[in-house]
Specification:
The protein has one domain: Immunoglobulin-like. It has 3 helices and 10 strands, in the order H-E-E-E-E-E-E-E-E-H-E-E-H. A 10-stranded antiparallel beta sheet has the order 1-2-3-4-5-8-7-6-9-10. A hairpin with a 2-residue loop joins strand 7 and strand 8. 38% of the residues are buried. The N terminus is likely disordered. By secondary structure, it is of the alpha+beta class.
Length: 168
């Protein structure tokens, strides 16, 4: 990816992911880490930018100071999946079946979250989330892996510090 496209991608991600007053902990590659106070997130937007008025697909990892959510993977899908259809995350050649509700999907628990984080750290190809929409058409939301390890580490470290009382 060219530097110009990477910079545009990062600016678009920051515009989508952050709200006024939400501190950015890290921004690099196609990922950003944010401190939302009650949770820290490593986030990326899909490669396909949503048309005006449509949902922008966003994927990320959530960490909370109390460790109830520690590396939970979540994704907002670009389309509503067909009820009962599988939502699959693929990183490299590793598939992960996600839990879906509406146009959101999540990892299935701590063991899967650890495996997803390990795969994401080693990813050299697109991170893909796919499902079938209401009409049965397959759709794929793709994410660049550039910057994901640092964004995960920054979000986790920030919430660990908050949980230890080092940050208010």
């Amino acid at each position: 990816m060219s530097m110009k496209r990477a910079a545009a991608s990062l600016l678009a991600l920051l515009a989508v992911a952050s709200a006024p007053g939400v501190p950015t902990i890290f921004a690099g590659g196609a990922w950003v880490a944010l401190d939302r106070g009650t949770a820290c997130e490593a986030l990326s937007r899909s490669q396909r930018i949503a048309a005006k008025g449509k949902v922008q697909a966003v994927a990320g990892f959530t960490f909370t100071p109390d460790h109830r959510r520690w590396g939970e993977f979540h994704v907002r899908l670009s389309r509503m999946p067909r009820p009962g259809s599988a939502v699959m995350l693929t990183i490299g050649d590793q598939p992960f079946l996600l839990l879906a509700r509406g146009d959101w999907a999540w990892s299935r628990g701590p063991l899967q979250e650890q495996a997803i984080i390990a795969a994401a750290r080693d990813a050299s190809t697109m991170i893909r989330v796919e499902a079938r929409d209401g009409a049965g058409r397959r759709f794929v939301d793709s994410y660049l892996p550039d910057g994901v390890p640092t964004a995960i580490d920054a979000a986790a470290a920030r919430c660990a510090s908050r949980g230890a009382g080092k940050i208010q």
